[in-house]
Specification:
2 copies of one chain form a homodimer. The first copy, chain A, is mainly alpha-helical. Chain A has a domain of about 90 residues: Winged helix-like DNA-binding domain superfamily/Winged helix DNA-binding domain (Arc Repressor Mutant, subunit A, Orthogonal Bundle), CATH 1.10.10. In chain A, about 45% of the residues lie in helices and about 5% in strands. Chain A is built from 6 helices and 2 strands. Chain A has a two-stranded antiparallel sheet with strand order 1-2. In chain A, strand 1 and strand 2 form a beta hairpin. The longest helix of chain A is centred in the C-terminal third of the chain and has 17 residues. The first copy, chain A, is elongated and about 55 Å long. Chain A binds a DNA duplex through helix 3.
DNA sequence: CGTATTTATCATATTCTCATGAGAAAAACA
DNA sequence: TGTTTTTCTCATGAGAATATGATAAATACG
């Protein structure tokens, strides 16, 4: 659904959000804890820093931090630098122009779903997901998840 | 959302469904009409034939035909040989095990959407999409009544 | 049979994603 | 200043997805 790179970015940002203590976190720490390739993650987080989503600091005690409050940081903002979530990927049959006025065969049925997915990424924040982890599981779950 | 190859497969099957007249259609005809790479499409349709979705015939007057009635042919059946639509791809954060009992941070929010997408592919048939094309535009849901 | 037509198959090329490794550049600190 | 730590940047490579071209195999039809 999303690329490996975007998945790394998302998981790393969630990690940063859960480990906010005023100090930056190094790429090495994140890569080790999340089992990701270190240099590749470095490049990935660098791009998020360029986009203003993270701040980076070099040297001792350096690393990455969230630059945006987690309740103002959408999943869309994190993924969008890597994957094209909207635009031509919205048409299931790959047409450049696919609209209510000029629909492909799948348009009416697919568009509703694609819109829901789009809304999910745009409206779900990092804070929403963090909160999910620390809440007792809902009516369907049998075991409470533990933060950590 | 789906791979280029799966998109070719889907579009080609829709083409075959709309051009059923008892005769097979050659790869060349499809590739030309739909602007797809000919040999690549050949390989793609060959796999669908192996899966029993199409029949193929060599030689003059040969080509491909639907092997399944279009109202019994789900989009899932067409795409599944090429893309993994379910399984590991269901977890937004890429975890192997992600369930109500052991959810990732995104599970409860994402799973509902992923399930809808899955259902779309499993329950939507080729016939559904063909019918969509011949209906007056503007309908947002369900089937419009047809004259005659 | 012979030939044209068409799929089937193989080899290869191209492009993109994912990943590794080696340094360069910056910053903290003794 | 020098050393260490860290990000930044570049070069490169592996592998998958996408695509092309050539040839083999099957089939219709004269």
């Amino acid at each position: 659904m999303i690329s490996q790179t975007a998945e790394y970015a998302l998981r790393a940002v969630l990690y940063l959000a859960r480990h906010q203590n005023g100090d930056p976190v190094s790429v090495e720490t994140i890569a080790d804890d999340l089992s990701m390739p270190r240099n590749y993650l470095s490049k990935t987080l660098h791009l998020l820093a360029k986009r203003g989503i993270l701040t980076s600091a070099r040297g001792p005690r350096g690393g990455f931090e969230l630059a945006v409050p987690s309740d103002e940081l959408s999943l869309f903002a994190i993924i969008e630098p890597f994957d094209e979530l909207e635009g031509r990927s919205q048409c299931l049959l790959g047409r450049r122009e696919c609209s209510d006025q000029a629909p492909c065969a799948a348009h009416h049925r697919w568009q509703r779903l694609a819109q829901r997915v789009s809304t999910f990424f745009r409206e779900t924040t990092v804070e929403d997901l963090i909160a999910e982890l620390s809440e007792p599981s809902g009516a369907t779950a049998g075991h409470a998840s533990r933060p950590g």
